Amino acid sequence: MSDLLETIQQYSLGDETDDIILSSQNEQAKAVFQLASKASLQLNILSYELDKHLYDQDDFVDACKTLVLRNQRCHIKILIQSNENLRRLDHRLIALMQRLPSRIDLKITDKEQKDFPETFLLADSYGIYLKRSPGRTNAIVNFKAPLQVKKYSQLFNKIWDKAHLDSSLRRLSL
């Protein structure tokens, strides 16, 4: 395991104040998993189509499941810009959402936000994973960035309020 992956693994939300630059998909997946596994109240995800290398990983989905089952007040909100591939392909996070529909919500952004360039995950009031544009390979993670998280939470909520539910990805549990 690389030094960076070991470093990321050691952090808890509220521990670190500097941005950590992530240059590989493996580092990014580990960072997203660590944020999800350290969260206690909420995760907000904005992604073009829920990147499989980040959000369709067993450890990430298990962390999300543990999060929502451990705390009744916990909620995961997911905003996507496109659902085309998600409707055709199996995705573990979508399957979890279908099993726990009252704890995990998914919406599609409105037309104004279809080409929003940033992808991010917000964990509680501290943690952020941020990739500034889809074509870039680098991303950042920070385990203690309350001002940045507040800014992106406000943006997320603004987009969320205008977004619409996607009934094609929902399944009724009987």
In brief:
It contains 7 helices and 8 strands; from the N terminus they run αβαβααβααββββαβ. It has helices at 3-10, 25-38, 52-55, 58-70, 84-88, 92-99, 146-162, and strands at residues 20-22, 42-47, 75-80, 104-108, 119-123, 127-131, 139-142, 164-165. It has an 8-stranded mixed β-sheet with strand order 1-7-6-5-2-3-4-8, with helices on both faces.
General description of the model:
- The chain is an alpha+beta fold.
- It has one domain (about 5-10, about 20-170): Endonuclease, Chain A (2-Layer Sandwich), CATH 3.30.870.
- Helices cover about 40% and strands about 20% of the residues.
- The protein has helices at about 5-10, 25-40, 50-55, 60-70, 85-90, 90-100, 145-160, and strands spanning about 20, 40-45, 75-80, 105-110, 120-125, 125-130, 140, 165.
- It has an eight-stranded mixed beta sheet, sandwiched between helices.
- Strand 5 and strand 6 form a beta hairpin.
- Helix 1 (about 5-10) runs parallel beside helix 2 and helix 2 (about 25-40) runs parallel beside helix 4.
